[in-house]
Amino acid sequence: VDRARRDVDENKGAAVGKVVVGLPPTFARHLTVPFVRAFRQDYPRASLSIVEGLSSTIQEWLEVGRVDVGLVYNPTASPAIDARILLEEPLCLIGPRKAGPEPLTLRLRELPRFPLVIPNRPHAIRRLVETRLAGLGLRPLIAMEIDAVPAILELVAEGYGYAVLSPRALHGSAQAQRLHSRTIVQPQLKSALAVVTSALRPATPLSKAAIAMIEASAGPALATP
């Protein structure tokens, strides 16, 4: 009933209603404030809710209708989801910083030598690492399964293992000075960032506006190393 009322109001041209946006942790801290500012300025009568979660969780929320728009890494192909790729970024092996010069790259084939502190399945990066190594007949060495990126970086900084993450994960992290990253190459391991919406529910004018604002607000965040 609430959705029907919002649709009627929006079809009358009134900028009212509610939109729920799901963001992954690595982008939530960069994107939330500029997005809220832009939304409040253009749609003061509308209601906005932002939820933070892992990409796999956001996609599940989208499928059951808990969120209207999501920003996710490596979305799983599904007839219930429409996805539009915003960018692809290389993944790195992140480890404790050591004295002296350190290599800047790591061959994918060498990755199983490093004990990983990595999220549980079905996290997007976990799936990607396992799938790409399986193509080489290899398996990752899992030291710990931790879903929170800040906790992963802290454990890596303390020497409990290594992480496979985007270099963006280090930006603004309290542990950045204690860590070193190596780009994974031969072949390069890339993570895709996409805007996802439901393929089964029609987009409202407000959700379309939210998508445009996410893309506009994401510009500076995407430019952040």
Written description of the protein model:
The structure is a single chain. 34% of the residues lie in helices and 28% in strands. By secondary structure, it is of the alpha/beta class. Helix 2 crosses helix 6 (205-223). The longest helix is centred in the C-terminal third of the chain and has 19 residues, at 205-223. The relative contact order is 0.22.
Count up the helices. 6
Elements, N to C (H/E) = HEHEHEEEEEHEHEEEH
The major β-sheet equals: 5 strands, mixed
Q: Biggest sheet: strands side by side, in what order? A: 2-1-3-11-4
Given the C-alpha coordinates, what overall shape results?
A: elongated
Q: Measure the end-to-end span.
A: 44 Å
β-strand amount: 25-35%
Topology:
Blueprint lengths: L1 H10 L6 E6 L1 H18 L4 E6 L2 H10 L4 E5 L7 E10 L1 E5 L8 E3 L7 E4 L5 H11 L6 E5 L3 H9 L5 E3 L13 E7 L4 E9 L6 H19 L2
Parallel strand pairs: 1-2, 1-3, 6-10, 7-8
Antiparallel strand pairs: 3-11, 4-11, 5-9, 5-10
Helix pairs in contact: 2-6
